[in-house]
Amino acid sequence: MSLRFASQTLRSNSLLKKNSILLATRSYSSGEKTLKQRFAELIPEKVDQIKQLKKDYGSTVIGELTLDQAYGGMRGIKGLVWEGSVLDPVEGIRFRGRTIPDIQKELPKAEGGSEPLPEALFWLLLTGEVPTESQVKTLSAELAARSQLPKHVEELIDRSPSHLHPMAQFSIAVTALESESQFAKAYASGVSKKDYWNYTYEDSIELLAKLPNIAARIYQNVFKDGKVPSINKDLDYGANLANLLGYGSNQEFVELIRLYLTIHSDHEGGNVSAHTTHLVGSALSSPFLSLAAGLNGLAGPLHGRANQEVLEWLFKLKDDVKGDFSKESIEKYLWDTLNAGRVVPGYGHAVLRKTDPRYTAQREFALKHLPDFDLFKLVSTIYEVAPEVLSKHGKTKNPWPNVDSHSGVLLQYYGLTEESFYTVLFGVSRAFGVLPQLIIDRAVGAPIERPKSFSTEKYIELVKGLSNK
Ligand code: CMX
């Protein structure tokens, strides 16, 4: 290690210590545990639980594997561990055992608000526990306090050409935050494995804290006048993000952002963005590099970018039907899409086999706040027509809408009309889901991921050998 790097490392480690001491003092004075303290308490329990489970059942067969699954995107293969959420094909997502309506009811809210605070969900995903209001306030304040971007990251975003997709800018900016990684510095200085989680936690909070400034800077640069308002240290995460984007004066929009960030966060471990973040993290790449990798996956049209595609598809539909929004003309448009060999964006899912409860939560928000909005009515009519058309078409295993089918329409209503930005908001939310798992991974000593692959020739040899038995 160079002398310069070694002294930087020592400096940042002592800063980190100071930070932890400050946090500890703050929490003792309020009498409640901080998130970090509570998580630290829970680690031995989790480690023991896993140790015991492996000791008792380590050689139990938990599934079968067919050749179709190897060639079919590994659907249904159980081989990942993900603590924050489990996805049931019919019922949808549960965050630490709780459905979306449960978390809407149970998680702390902002004063006067009715949607859950995403900071509270982060706490729940990491610990399995619902935080108190004051614990969430402490976390919100910490995130606001750590939100400022390093100059070089601001410059990188400012230098990005406006035709570079916002998701590419987002990924570049998150990657460039690697300069701030306490984990990378601690690893280079030879810190013990037992402490990995500590530095992963610090990086994750630092990263989460900085995402609103990154997202807003991209938005203001590409679509507005490039000026980004300042973070308000007294506001929660969603309110700050809404402010930075320029829509904070509308309380309904602020509520929407809180709901949006909460429900887009986690969808168990096998989806592309979650799995990628976890996989890259398993090589002990920092949370910055790991999340950036996950964001690159989220940017794909079959995954997060579908929310942008939905809007583009809806606008084309509006052009095509020339004011005739009858079920018949929408049905024709759906068939035209399918017959052109394209997917209907916002419909279908690799795991779900029913309407996505994240779709339902957004539909309920729309029914409450914007029941007469023409695009919402259009989305509702498509919901009446598309499942039957997709079923008749006969390819997709799930003809029901997913989360992306609804999110853009809500943002359109409040004036955030630039659909190529939508996946960035999804990405900010996804960080709330994948970073807790990254911290848990390091706390329980999860190994580098390395499944086995075969060539087609080797699979032929394998199946022929097996079928001869
Ligand atoms: N429209 C038309 N065809 C569809 C379809 C849709 N909405 N959904 C699936 N299909 C097709 C698939 O393309 C596949 O066709 P081929 O056999 O020709 O390859 C066939 O139906 C079987 O697919 P499946 O097993 O039902 O679905 P997959 O698990 O392979 O894919 C998904 C899942 C989400 C990629 C797919 O449903 C899709 O492309 N949907 C549209 C894009 C979308 O909304 N993505 C967002 C998902 C949520 C998220 O991650 O954000």
TrEMBL record:
Q: Tell me if Acyltransferase is a UniProt keyword of this record.
A: yes
Supply the SUPFAM superfamilies for this chain.
Citrate synthase (SSF48256)
Question: What would be an example GO MF term here?
Answer: acyltransferase activity, acyl groups converted into alkyl on transfer
| Cellular component annotations (GO), alphabetically ordered | mitochondrial matrix
Q: Which domain of life is it from?
A: Eukaryota
Transferase found in the keyword field:
yes
Residues spanning the membrane: none
- Catalytic residues at H303, H349, D404
The biological process GO terms on file are: carbohydrate metabolic process; citrate metabolic process; tricarboxylic acid cycle
Its keywords, alphabetically, are: Acyltransferase, Transferase
Pfam families per record:
Citrate_synt
What PROSITE patterns does the annotation carry?
A: CITRATE_SYNTHASE (PS00480)
Q: Which family does it belong to?
A: Belongs to the citrate synthase family.
**Listed PANTHER family:** CITRATE SYNTHASE (PTHR11739), CITRATE SYNTHASE, MITOCHONDRIAL (PTHR11739:SF8)
For this entry, the protein name equals Citrate synthase
